[in-house]
């Protein structure tokens, strides 16, 4: 009998099982692969065995960070990538790297640095789920860590001022969203009708942007102009998490420009390099991944009805 596995993570709101991108990524992968996780919400990451969330505990094994948790699940034969080719496995790693480079800084800024969002939504939400006196300290610490990470990755020459950094990270994020939309097209998931690791990571990044009600929503507004990405998030929430979807995905999709083409070339180049180095994603026998056979796309590709740390 397999050892029980428990996942500790931040809780959810706004129709999401968790507001924490890393936690969402692991939870989605577990759903896709059929891994029997018991999910426990936590109100103090310092109480986690490694001082961070999400954290997976199985008997005397303690694992944090999404990439390591997913690798552990694969070793337990819960592999959502079982049917992927070596090329698709390389594409997965390339797109995850793109998400962390291009989309993560804007996600962190939206939640933790944008003053109006932080003061009216992020800080009150997290503080209300922490015990006193941590509620007075931890949100500010998480905000400072997010800003430091953004400046570390985007604050060097030729960009120096915070205003320039903000403008650049949102340009990069919108280009990344455009690329993801183009790559997904009218498909149910990024590699056909079966969700994989890439779908888990994309969902973990996009769902909080899509669902959380912020006063400053420039990234959310751009995402909602890409109906296939909105439908992608809604389908996962309704079919894998059994959550009721409110609202709908608006029509209209941005046309890919020269920057989008460059991003595509970058991903293809990185994918080719990774493919030469890594061909071990599907070597061992695995539990078959969970397929979705009931979802149908409406005409025009719209919906028919809605390893770095991803947060401080």
Description:
The chain is mostly helical. 43% of the residues are buried. Helix 3 (86-113) runs antiparallel to helix 6, helix 4 (115-128) packs across helix 5 and helix 6 (162-184) crosses helix 10 (258-277). The protein has a domain at 84-301. Strands 2-1-3-4 form a four-stranded mixed β-sheet, covered by helices on one side. It has helices spanning 21-33, 66-75, 86-113, 115-128, 134-154, 162-184, 197-211, 218-223, 227-239, 258-277; strands at residues 5-9, 37-41, 55-58, 61-64. Helix content is 52%, strand content 6%. It is built from ten helices and four strands; from the N terminus they run βαβββααααααααα.
Give the oligomeric state: single chain
Based on Cα principal axes, name the global outline. globular
Low-confidence stretches: 247-258, 293-311
How much helix is in the residues? Answer: 40-55%
Alpha plus pi helix count: 10
Question: Which properties best describe this structure?
Answer:
312 residues; mainly alpha; 10 helices; 4 strands
Short description:
One of its GO terms (biological process) is mitochondrion organization. The protein contains 10 helices and 4 strands, in the order E-H-E-E-E-H-H-H-H-H-H-H-H-H.
Indicate the topology:
Layout: E1 5-9, H1 21-33, E2 37-41, E3 55-58, E4 61-64, H2 66-75, H3 86-113, H4 115-128, H5 134-154, H6 162-184, H7 197-211, H8 218-223, H9 227-239, H10 258-277
Parallel strand pairs: 1-2
Antiparallel strand pairs: 1-3, 3-4
Helix pairs in contact: 1-2, 1-7, 3-4, 3-5, 3-6, 3-7, 3-10, 4-5, 6-10, 7-9
């Amino acid at each position: 009998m397999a050892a029980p596995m428990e996942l500790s993570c931040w809780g959810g709101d706004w129709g999401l099982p968790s507001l924490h991108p890393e936690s969402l990524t692991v939870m989605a992968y577990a759903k896709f692969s059929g891994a029997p996780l018991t999910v426990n919400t936590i109100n103090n990451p310092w109480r986690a065995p490694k001082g961070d969330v999400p954290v997976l505990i199985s008997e005397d094994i303690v694992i944090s960070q999404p990439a390591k948790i997913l690798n552990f699940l694969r070793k337990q034969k819960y592999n959502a990538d079982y049917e992927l080719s070596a090329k698709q496995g390389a594409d997965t790693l390339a797109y995850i790297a793109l998400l962390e480079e291009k989309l993560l800084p804007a996600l962190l800024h939206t939640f933790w640095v944008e003053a109006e969002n932080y003061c009216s939504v992020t800080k009150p939400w997290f503080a209300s789920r922490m015990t006193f006196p941590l509620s007075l300290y931890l949100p500010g610490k998480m905000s400072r860590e997010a800003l430091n990470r953004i400046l570390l990755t985007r604050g060097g020459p030729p960009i120096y001022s915070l205003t320039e950094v903000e403008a650049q990270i949102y340009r990069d994020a919108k280009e990344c969203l455009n690329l993801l939309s183009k790559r997904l097209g009218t498909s149910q998931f990024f590699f056909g009708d079966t969700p994989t690791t890439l779908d888990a990571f994309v969902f973990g990044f996009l769902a909080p942007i899509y669902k959380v009600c912020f006063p400053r929503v420039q990234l959310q507004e751009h995402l909602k102009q890409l109906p296939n990405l909105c439908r992608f998030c809604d389908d996962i929430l309704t079919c894998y998490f059994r959550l009721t979807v409110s609202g709908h995905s608006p029509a209209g999709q941005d046309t890919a420009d020269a920057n989008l083409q460059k991003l595509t070339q970058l991903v293809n180049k990185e994918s080719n390099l990774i493919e030469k180095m890594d061909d071990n994603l599907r070597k061992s026998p695995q539990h078959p991944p969970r397929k979705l056979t009931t979802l149908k796309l409406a005409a025009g590709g719209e919906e028919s009805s809605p390893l770095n740390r991803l947060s401080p």
